[in-house]
Amino acid sequence: MRKRVLLLAVLVLSLAVASAGLAAPAGAGPNDPTVLFGARPEPGTQQGTTSLEGKIGRRLATVRVYYNWDSPFPDTDVNWFNANGYTMLLSVKSERRNHTFVQWRDIASAQPGSTIYNDIVRWAGRVKALGNHVYFTFNHEPETSLNSSGAGADFVAAWRKVVTVFRAQGVTNADYLWIMTAYSFKAKDRRRASTGTPATPTSTTSGPTPTTGTTAGPAPATPGTRWSSWSTRCGCSPRARPSRAS
Description:
Blueprint: E1 7-12, E2 35-40, H1 46-56, E3 62-67, H2 76-83, E4 87-92, H3 104-108, H4 115-130, E5 134-138, H5 152-168, E6 174-176, H6 213-216, E7 235-237
Helix pairs in contact: 4-5
C-alpha cells in the first residue's frame, strides 16, 4: 500500500485549525491546539518532500516514514527531516527486510537479554536519540492481510510491550499512535477495531485493540488512512487523538 502515488493525511490532534503558509511548523504536543498537515510523499525522501511542497504551496508539518523491524536507522532522509524541523510519524513493522515476520507473541514475551528484546531496546534508543518529538507507531494497520505476525490479542500484548520498553529506556519524546485502516471501524469480522477509546479486548475476534491500563498507558490515537491520488482527493483522519508517553 505504501507504494501508491501519494498518502495525504490530515492528522487531527485537536479541534483547532492550523494556519497555512510556508513557515516552519511549530512543535506539537497533546495540549497544542494544532492540526498537523502532513503527507507520505513519493518518493519519501528529501527531494520528494520538497517537490510536493512546491506543488501544494506550503510546508509540510509532518512526514510519514516507514521502516522494517531490522531496517538501518536513521538514514540520510530521516536525519534531514529531523534537522529541518519536520515532525515524523515513524512506523516500524514487525516484518524483516527479507519478508519474514517477527511474531507478536514473541515480542510480547521477550525477556531482557533476548534478541527480540534487544531489538526493541535498539529502536527505543534510536527514537530517543532523535531528540525531537516523534509520533511512533508499532505495526500500523495490523488487521490487514499484509501482516502475518499473529492474532489480535497477540498484537495487543506486543504493542504494550514495545511501549513499556520504550518508557523503561527513558524515551520521553514520543507519542504512540495506534493506526488502523478506516474500514476497520465498520468491519464486522476479525478486522473490527474499537469505535471508542481503546479498552480491554475480550477476544481475538474483537480486533487488534491496544489496551490502556498501567503497563502501556494512555489510549493511542487512531488515524484511519486513505490512499489516493493527489489530483482526486485526500484522506482525512476523523479520530486522531494524541497519546503521551509520560
